[in-house]
Amino acid sequence: MLLSCGKKVLLLAFCLSIALLSPSLHASNKIRFIRAYNNKYVYLRDVARYYGMKCYVWKGMVTLSSKYTKVLFYPQKKAAAVNGTKIILSFAPFVRGNDCFISSKDFLSTIDPILRRGALTKHTLRTIMIDPGHGGKDNGGKGVYAKEKSLALQIGRRVGQMLQRKGYRVVITRNSDRYLTLGQRTDLARKYSADLFVSIHTNIAANKAVDGIETFCLAPAGTASTHSKKTVWKTSSGNSFDKNNMNIAFQVQQSLINRTKADDRGVKRARFFVLRNASCPAILIECGFLSNKSEENKLRSTWYQNLIAKSIVEGILRYHSRIVSSK
Ligand SMILES: [Zn+2]
């Protein structure tokens, strides 16, 4: 069934030096690409070889695996997983004949920054800006008991205190129930020369059964936001932190899901103002749904807020270890 899509695909196969895709990759390792669906796609088996991984198709999944890493792709679906953590690709992979393809944008902006430290820009990580969402006249989402603005502040303060204990310089965009525009938040990050921007929110949905955690980073140029109806935003740019944005989002989401066992809604892309205008790598975390009774109760509790904060800090520490190592 998976092979049937091949007819729709106009294939123009090119053999391309990997150096053309990414100057930092080794020139002798060829990753071929094709054009399909008005886009450029790369052979997954070439990608696997590049990372020294095995590539095989089983039960409708395409798996790339090595001793420590397993990446799962589901043809025709944007959801993928790296070591059990969900990531939402910009374009769905597809199978044709014996080969599976992922978009070159997903390879370079999503997979490579997670699998290869060398893909990341090294930078100082000393000042971290914590941004509790909403505040003042802007309540954000509302549950039965809790308001998003209050929970975001409580969790943000906990994250800030834990980071300070780890030796970071922490700045918080608001430390009280006051209103700030989105522009004021990114201006503060610039003013304090933040090295990392972490915006904290909670979610809400019409369906009260929906729960779980998701982490957003900026959609790279030429890709749509995860929840956008448009297929491609050709004119919208990403930023110079695209790869680092992806890695910090992945580390934080993985840590959050591993520790809280919440439903994994994945690492997603968006063009939220604070992500678009951040002067440093930036993420926005949706810590859970206030519209879900049990998740609201957890989010109001001290133990769960501490668990969320600890997970976010752990994700930041993991990211930090990756941007100082050149391996
Ligand atoms: Zn919010």
Q: What is the assigned CATH homologous superfamily of the largest domain?
A: Zn-dependent exopeptidases
Coarse morphology: globular
CATH class of the largest domain: Alpha Beta
Average pLDDT score: 89
Task: Give the tally of β-strands.
Answer: 16
How many separate domains make up the residues? 2
Poorly predicted runs of 5 or more residues: 1-28
Q: Which class do the helix and strand fractions yield? A: alpha+beta
Query: Beta-strand percentage?
Result: 15-25%
The SSE string, one letter per element, is: EHEEHEEEEEEEHEHEHEEHEHEHH
- Using the 3D structure, state the CATH architecture of the largest domain: 3-Layer(aba) Sandwich
Keywords:
327 residues, alpha+beta, Copper Amine Oxidase, Chain A, domain 1, Aminopeptidase, 2 domains, six-stranded mixed β-sheet, five-stranded antiparallel β-sheet, 16 strands, 32% helix, 25% strand, globular, disordered N terminus, binds zinc ion
Structural summary, described in words:
With 327 residues, the protein is an alpha+beta fold. The chain has two domains: 114 residues, Copper Amine Oxidase, Chain A, domain 1 (2-Layer Sandwich), CATH 3.30.457; 198 residues, Zn-dependent exopeptidases (Aminopeptidase). The chain contains nine helices and 16 strands. It is 32% helix and 25% strand. The protein is globular and about 55 Å long. The site of zinc ion has 5 residues, from loops. Zinc ion binds next to loops.
What is the compact description of this entry?
The protein has 327 residues and is of the alpha+beta class. The protein has helices at 18-21, 44-51, 104-115, 148-165, 182-191, 242-260, 273-276, 293-300, 302-324; strands at 12-14, 33-36, 39-43, 54-58, 61-65, 70-73, 79-82, 85-88, 94-96, 99-103, 127-132, 169-172, 196-203, 213-218, 264-270, 282-289. The chain has two domains: 2-115, Copper amine oxidase-like, N-terminal domain (Copper Amine Oxidase, Chain A, domain 1, 2-Layer Sandwich), CATH 3.30.457; 127-324, Aminopeptidase, CATH 3.40.630.
